[in-house]
Fold:
Amino acid sequence: NQSFLSLIDTLQICLVDKEVVLLKHHPIRPYLFNLYSILLEPLIQKGYIRQIQDKGIPETTAMLSDKRVARVHLTGSLKTEQAVFPIFSQKHNNNDDNSQIREMVTSELGCVTPVIVVPGQYKEKE
Structure:
């Protein structure tokens, strides 16, 4: 995935969906923390966005299990999504109704960013 996707997703969720965002940086991209601190400073100062570095699976599991976390959006692999899904199911005591949990866990897997540029000249298939 591209380094900028976490920024795009963070802005989308914060500004368009009007939700508070906790951005956990990928362990191979810790250098984005300082850059994003500058770019997102007004939103961070107002408490709309907070950033953390990835400190491993146990901390991530604890964060996902926190009752204050109502939704998660991830950019990554199918394995990552499959690891997150049961944590939310268990947290909400809802192992049967996957549709409710599916609405709480959204993902952008494999850099297939759903963006349409308009105006544009597109073929029917596009």
Summary: The chain is about 45% helix and 15% strand.
